[in-house]
C-alpha cells in the first residue's frame, strides 16, 4: 500500500472520560458602594445569578456543582475510575466487537476490562459502555491503552488503539523515628516508641479518617494519640481531623514485645521488623484514599557483649547512709564468659564491699542478679557510676557509667530552711 494513501476511516468511535467527584462552583463577587456609578446594579445581578447563595451572594462558594474540565491529579492510594464508550458512527451493523482496556505502568501491565468476551453485533447509533476501576499502587507514569477490534459486514477485520497518559503523584510524605526504652527494671526486653510524621503534600485539605499501626507478630501496640476524657478518649488533634496542605501531623505508638517473644526480643541482633502504617483519608467531596507503608524496620539497640540493667533502686536516700541496689547482668554474646566485678568510687558515690569479686561463668543468653551496697557523700540528684566488668577469658573490660540516678537528702536539715 502506498504510504501516501489516506488512512482508512474507522466505523466506531472511542471515547474515554475519567470519573471523579464534582466540585462546588465558585464565582468572583463584584460589589461597589451605593454612591458609585453602577449603584445597585452589581448587587441586583448577583441576586439574579443562579450560582450564588440566596442571602449570601458575596460568598465565593455557591450551591451548584461543576464537573471537572480536565483530567486532574491522581494520587497514590486513590481509586482510578474511567468511563469507556464505543459508539457506532456508521450506517451499517458491526459484528464481533471486542473492547480491551489495559493499564501500563513502569513495572507491569494490568487488564482492567470487566469482560473479555466479544459483543455479537452493534447497530448504527448504538454504543457499548464500560466502567473500569483500579486502586493506584505505583508512583510515576501510567498509560491507559484502549484497544477495539471488530468485523464489518463485508467480513473485513479492523482494529485501532488509543493511548491516555497520566502521572500518579505522591499525596503524603511519611517519616518515621524509633525510640528505645526499657519496659521495666526487671526485664531485659525493651519497649519501642514509634513517631510517625505525616505531611500533606497535595494542594487540597485532607480528612484523616484513620492512621493506625499494624504490628508484626512479635509486638503488641498501644496508640498514644488520644487524651483520656470520661469514658472515651479524645483525639489530640480535635474532633475535626483535617490536615491542611503542607501541614505535618505527628502520631505516636508504643510497641511492647509479646510475653512469648520477650526474652528473644531483648537480645535480638540486627534489624527487627516492627510493622506497617495504614493511612486512610478523604478529599474533596468524599473521595477516599488509602496508603500502606512497607514493613518498618529498626536497628535493635546495641548492648554489646554484656548488658547491665538495674532491677531495684530507692527513689530517695539519706546522705552518707548506705542503701541497697540490685543490678542484672546479661550475657548477650554467643560465648561463655568468666566475669570479675570491680567497683570504682567517684567524687560523690562510694561503693561498700570488696572490689575485684569473682562472679563466675555466665553462659550465652543467661543472666544473674547482683545485690550491691552504695552510699553518697553529696546531696542532690546523683548518678550511680563506677562499675567495671572484666571477662578473664578474652581479657576484655566493660565500663558502666550513669547506670541510674538517685535523690540524696540530708535527714538533719530543716525542710523550711
UniProtKB/TrEMBL annotation:
<dbReference type="Pfam" id="PF23643">
    <property type="entry name" value="TRAPPC13_C"/>
</dbReference>
<feature type="domain" description="Trafficking protein particle complex subunit 13 middle">
    <location>
        <begin position="172"/>
        <end position="301"/>
    </location>
</feature>
<dbReference type="Pfam" id="PF06159">
    <property type="entry name" value="TRAPPC13_N"/>
</dbReference>
<dbReference type="Pfam" id="PF23647">
    <property type="entry name" value="TRAPPC13_M"/>
</dbReference>
<feature type="domain" description="Trafficking protein particle complex subunit 13 N-terminal">
    <location>
        <begin position="11"/>
        <end position="168"/>
    </location>
</feature>
<feature type="domain" description="Trafficking protein particle complex subunit 13 C-terminal">
    <location>
        <begin position="314"/>
        <end position="408"/>
    </location>
</feature>
<protein>
    <recommendedName>
        <fullName>Trafficking protein particle complex subunit 13</fullName>
    </recommendedName>
</protein>
<dbReference type="InterPro" id="IPR055428">
    <property type="entry name" value="TRAPPC13_C"/>
</dbReference>
<dbReference type="InterPro" id="IPR055429">
    <property type="entry name" value="TRAPPC13_M"/>
</dbReference>
<dbReference type="GO" id="GO:1990072">
    <property type="term" value="C:TRAPPIII protein complex"/>
</dbReference>
<comment type="similarity">
    <text>Belongs to the TRAPPC13 family.</text>
</comment>
<dbReference type="InterPro" id="IPR055427">
    <property type="entry name" value="TRAPPC13_N"/>
</dbReference>
<comment type="subunit">
    <text>Part of the multisubunit TRAPP (transport protein particle) complex.</text>
</comment>
<dbReference type="InterPro" id="IPR010378">
    <property type="entry name" value="TRAPPC13"/>
</dbReference>
